[in-house]
Design a protein that fits this description.
alpha/beta; 7-stranded parallel β-sheet; 11 helices; 7 strands
């Protein structure tokens, strides 16, 4: 990256940390779309991170996640906190952007200067989040946001990746979705710290809550936290105050039991993931531009070389050139 670009990036980071909303939005766009800038930005803001409380909201389509998030964000603002919302939506097949990128269901929050809403498209990434979701969360954390709420794409049972980088995972369902409990099985039931039966004014809410409670009682919690089961009506805010308190209770539990301090495993995962992303975003891009890449791909096309040996040759050639530069 040219020195002038590095200098302007430093100014942008400083401005974002100072609270400039345009600069924050620009940093998010860069970490999402510019692999080289992403590495520079995340390296600089790393020392400002780990101050926000990060809450993941997941669950099947139609359960009212966006409305519930809007109400939760209001509660945090009423308490004087700053809030970031990262909403991940399925990608449009035509544009590649987020299908609900305007976040019409959270529109009333957009005018609050202390609430920052960011929409992201999955861009084909599985697990209910986009590849750069965690990076965007890191930006919001580094600029001093008190609470960051991450909404998954709501694709169903596969929305479990959010658990990897949030403090508290809230799994939302609602009565009337067919077999509500079946919709929560196979993975998503295992990640919940708090379960919410939304639309609790609909018939069957008590039965659904009882079924979820029974399922949570069947297994012993790994870290000692027994998942909470709650009922809400997001359209009028009923039960949202209790949800906010449950999130705070979980935060206190983690702090009191030292779970957030025992971060060796988290650091291993973070370094491995950073290595993978750096290789894919930076090194692989450099390798593709070499004559060696063109040579080995032609050999693979001619069936005189297999792709696996070609990959080894490329990596060996790249490392050899790096050693010469050193």
């Amino acid at each position: 990256m040219p020195k002038s670009s590095v200098s302007s990036l430093n100014v942008l980071v400083k401005s974002a940390i100072g609270g400039n909303r345009r600069a924050i939005a620009k940093l998010m766009s860069l970490v999402e779309n510019d692999p080289k800038a992403r590495v520079k930005i995340l390296s600089q803001i790393y020392w400002k991170m780990n101050r926000a409380r990060i809450v993941g909201i997941t669950g099947p389509p139609g359960c009212g996640k966006s409305t519930l998030i809007g109400q939760l964000a209001k509660r945090y603002r009423d308490s004087g906190h700053t809030v970031g919302v990262v909403a991940v939506d399925p990608s449009s097949h035509l544009t590649g952007g987020a299908l609900l990128g305007d976040r019409v269901r959270m529109g009333e929050l957009a005018s609050d200067p202390k609430i920052f809403i960011r929409s992201m498209a999955t861009r084909g990434h599985f697990g209910g989040i986009a590849q750069a979701t965690e990076d965007v969360v890191h930006v919001l954390d580094a600029v001093g946001t008190d609470y960051v709420i991450v909404e998954t794409a709501g694709a169903g049972q596969s929305d479990v990746d959010v658990k990897n980088f949030v403090h508290t995972t809230v799994v939302v369902t609602a009565p009337g979705l067919g077999d509500e409990i079946q919709a929560l099985k196979a993975g998503i039931m295992e990640i919940g710290d708090i379960f919410v039966v939304n639309k609790a004014d609909i018939e069957g809410a008590d039965r659904t809550a009882q079924q979820i409670l029974s399922m949570t009682m069947m297994s012993e919690p790994g870290n000692g936290w027994r998942p909470r089961v709650m009922k809400t009506v997001a359209t009028n805010g009923d039960g949202v105050e209790g949800l906010a308190e449950a999130v705070n209770q979980h935060a206190r539990f983690l702090e009191e039991h030292g779970h957030e301090l025992e971060s060796n495993n988290n650091c291993v995962v973070a370094v491995l993931e950073a290595s993978r992303r750096y290789f894919n975003d930076v090194i692989l891009g450099q390798m593709v531009l070499t004559r060696k890449f063109e040579y080995v791909t032609k050999r693979v096309a001619a069936r005189s070389l297999d792709p696996y040996s070609a990959a080894q040759l490329l990596l060996h050639s790249y490392l050899k050139k790096r050693q010469k530069r050193v």
